[in-house]
Amino acid sequence: MKALHFGAGNIGRGFIGKTLSESGFNVIFSDVNQDIVDAINCKKKYSVKIVGANQDKIVDVKKVSAVNSNDPNIIKIVASVNLITTAVGPRALDKIASIIMYGIILKIQNQSIQPLNIIACENKIRASSFLKQEILKKIPMKYQEYLKKYIGFVDCSIDTIIPFFKNNNDLSLIAEEFKEWIVNITQFKGTIPKIIDMKLSDNLIAFIERKLFTLNTGHAVAAYLGLIKKYKTMKEAISDKKIRSIVRFAMEESGSVLIKRYKFNKNDHLSYIKKIFLRLENPFLSDNLTRIARNPLQKLGREERLIKPLLGAIKYQLPYSNLVKGIAAAFYYQNSKDAESIRIASLIKKQGLKNTLIQISNLPVNSKEVDAIILEYNSILKTIQ
């Protein structure tokens, strides 16, 4: 069995690639970073240090190779593998779609009727379905029937923390023991691949939102608030008593929305939040805040980790003051090396915060929520002057 994985970064190597290798797949990584591609092809393996509650262990990931995403030969690989996965970031899925499309066309030309399943492992709701639509936009009409019959686009939820880690071995990683990979059982074509620790579900959206609006919401709030105070790591941010409190309450506010929407057991969900918080506190998993904060335009989207919980709280008439603090901090986020941060700052300077809020997050015009974010944003300005 062969699997092609797009994205040889932390999640790609430390979670998806590792899991597929342990499940018996020969894993081919695809990445635009030629240094990583060369390192993988030279060593054919790498190690992941698993940090657990009681003990640590080293896992060697073997039988791996790599190809640059711009290498024309990748089309042949797409046409020949049994499984494709991605961990490239939602905004890169459009580029991936073109590569996969040409691979599917070659697969058709080779008269292959071997099913191919594609799982986009991104922090985006129904990322695989989004990828499918991008491919359908590009692929000629005459190939679309084949795609619908033999190509499965399987939505999933993934949850683990793998911080940036660098030592003399550029491929080595540190990963937490906790990991969760839940997939939509109804979207596979052909035989469902046997992948260790992959859970099958017919109620995936609840799990996706549980993870996105708990771990990712907490991560984002801590990062944006931490950067205001010039902290560099998650450990520094979460050790700040004020930030710690805001993050915890923001996750509880988001959790109240999930409990209402999906009828989650309240005690179970509060226990889940506590578990997430303990993971954020783990000093061995402390991540760089600028990495967590990157791509704020995406994170401030209407369906994303900060705005959707706020809209849910508004809908169900639930508290949201701590979510507002995180949103205001995200709009304030300033990073000269982050194009999206520069874009937000430019919009605020040109048209003001209110119009920028409405444009980026699609929030209701003249609403008390917008006023609350503006008030919090101005409070941030006062504290740093």
Summarize the structure in words.
Pfam families: Mannitol_dh (PF01232), Mannitol_dh_C (PF08125). This is Mannitol-1-phosphate 5-dehydrogenase. This protein is α/β, with parallel strands linked by helices and about 375 residues long. The protein has 2 domains: about 1-200, Rossmann fold (3-Layer(aba) Sandwich); about 205-385, N-(1-d-carboxylethyl)-l-norvaline Dehydrogenase, domain 2, CATH 1.10.1040.10. The chain has 16 helices and 12 strands. It has helices spanning about 10-20, 35-45, 75-80, 95-110, 125-140, 145-150, 205-230, 235-240, 240-260, 265-280, 290-295, 295-300, 305-315, 320-330, 340-360, 370-385, and strands spanning about 1-5, 25-30, 45-50, 55-60, 65-70, 85, 115-120, 150-155, 155-160, 175, 180-185, 200. α1 (about 10-20) links the parallel β1 and β2. The protein starts with a strand and ends with a helix. The mean pLDDT is about 95.
